[in-house]
Amino acid sequence: MPTLTTLLAFALATAIAGAVPGPTVAVVVANAMRFGTRAGVLTALGAEIAVLTMLGVVAFGLEAVMAFMGWAFEWIKLLGATYLVYIGWRMFAARHHPQAVDDGRRRQRSGFVLHGFLVVWSNPKTLLFLGAFLPHFIVPGEPALPQVVLLGAITLVLATANDFGYALMAGGLKSVMTEARTRLVTRLSGLVLMAGGIWLALSKRA
């Protein structure tokens, strides 16, 4: 198994990578600001479910999935980029009004969870990154599966703390945000998503 020093180095690198705001954080913050803390938390929950499924893919089916990703990467990437741009535009063009909170409460919980899930899975580079990053911390000559499970658990805990932290922070700030400021945050989040989609579409496989 990896040494404590290796695990700490992995946790630090993972925490730094996760702390940088990206499409997931943008959606979590925007939903929390627009619809309340509950919506942000549910969005974050969907994102963590997506991360968990990706870790499962890495642990149990890496070779087959990576072969498929290599064959269909460009199409998957373009579909993901299109989705990011689409939801980014919807957020950017949305008109915020006081009824939005009530609309968010009436929306099914699964809607926010699915939103977070799809945002994470819309970026195939996330799966490729996990598949390339985790093996660097696996001790050669020892069973790989228990090590991947341990590293995956650390990744999931840190991702959960990061995304739920953003959701709680954004939801807490909602009470002191004016409608104009909330609209601004939502539009900025939409711009982040659209920029992420454009970057994904133009990026080349590493």
Report on this structure:
With 206 residues, this protein is an all-alpha fold. Helix content is 83%, strand content 0%. Residues 97-102 have low confidence and may be disordered.
In round numbers, the mean pLDDT is: 79
- Total beta strands: 0
Q: Separation of termini?
A: 29 Å
Oligomeric state of the chains in view? single chain
Shape: globular
Taken together, the total number of domains comes to: 1
Q: Helices and strands in order, then pairings?
A:
Blueprint: H1 4-19, H2 23-35, H3 37-93, H4 99-106, H5 109-121, H6 124-133, H7 144-173, H8 179-202
Helix pairs in contact: 1-7, 2-3, 2-5, 2-7, 2-8, 3-5, 3-6, 3-7, 3-8
Short description:
The protein is built from 8 helices and no strands. It has helices at residues 4-19, 23-35, 37-93, 99-106, 109-121, 124-133, 144-173, 179-202.
List the keywords.
206 residues, mainly alpha, 83% helix, globular
